[in-house]
Amino acid sequence: MTVRDTPAAPVFTDDVKRQFMEEALAESRRALPGCQPNPPVGCVIVRGTTVVARGFTGEPGEPHAEAAALRALGPDAPAEELAMFVTLEPCAFVGRTPSCAWALVHSGIRTVFVGTLDPDARNNGAGIATMRNAGITVTVGIDEERVLDFIAPYLGHAPRA
Fold it and tell me: Is 66 a catalytic residue?
């Protein structure tokens, strides 16, 4: 049985995916202006049709959106029943904070929806590959146009791949 065949893995319609990405975008807005020069990233973790945790990127050196949402979730949630919606690809590298992609691998969450790839040359697909290689089902491009419009100022100065 593959991860995609797991009965507990959440399944969402396109409308529901867009709804949850809009919730993640709302969290992104909360990141500004404190997160700069990092991108304003937002994240929600859902069980079924209910948001159970939220997060946004804090000031430089503080947790990124994914780590903040995982912290808000707590340790006792049945991770296999959860899905994460995050506006920007989780980072695969270690900078001032640990890798968000690896945090997701260790969280037990098996389904991740991403608004768009991170254009930062240190990441740009590496976060997606890290999660997929660990067996996480990752879907990229959820409400991508809206996400790109929102993070356009960041895209202008991120190192290109």
Answer: yes
The pTM (predicted TM-score) of the whole model is: 0.88
Q: Give yes or no for a cis peptide into 159 (omega within 30° of 0).
A: no
Which is nearest to 158 in space by CA: 100, 127, 118? 118
Quickly list DSSP for 5-47: G-TTS----HHHHHHHHHHHHHHHHHHTTTTTTS---EEEEEE
CATH architecture of 14-151: 3-Layer(aba) Sandwich (3.40)
Of 27, 66, 81, 89, which is the active-site residue?
A: 66
**pLDDT score, position 79:** 79
d(CA 8, CA 22): 24
